[in-house]
């Protein structure tokens, strides 16, 4: 059975790196994997998505409306923007984190309120946590993407695989320790 994962967020949050680690790990553990990424206006804080599909045999990386088994939102407004891609009964993992767009920063628009509550009213399986706070407690806010990856791995039931070895395969040695701590923290949420 093929599983479909949609990562959504804002440019600069490490979405593509998290997807790459997931993809490399799934391949290492024997799955057929397809990945597609859309950078959008990533350099300007725009929307970024990555689609990962894995299983015994996967023919396409693309996830259509209502097809994602899990949607991982690195920013809560992005969770709301992409909700229609989650399948009925799917799981949404949301980072309770705000990144303000330019119109919000210059006072032309307001950041939407009660985003998570509105999503939770429509979707049954929503897991919300503050990955940035967890990453800061580990010593580096930049690893919140790996904390989220750990939470996804737990949601998929893949936490018994050797993800530390995948981190060591993908990242430079100086980044191993903090990222292994981050992925473990995410799996322990």
Automatic annotation (TrEMBL):
Keyword RNA-binding: no
Annotated keywords: Oxidoreductase, Pyruvate
Listed EC numbers: 1.2.7.8
Gene3D superfamilies: Pyruvate-ferredoxin oxidoreductase, PFOR, domain III
SUPFAM superfamilies linked to this entry: Pyruvate-ferredoxin oxidoreductase, PFOR, domain III
Domain Pyruvate/ketoisovalerate oxidoreductase catalytic, first and last residues per copy: 11-187
GO molecular function: indolepyruvate ferredoxin oxidoreductase activity
InterPro entries (alphabetical): IorB_Oxidoreductase, Pyrv/ketoisovalerate_OxRed_cat, Pyrv_flavodox_OxRed_cen
Protein's recorded name: Indolepyruvate oxidoreductase
Organism: Fervidicella metallireducens AeB
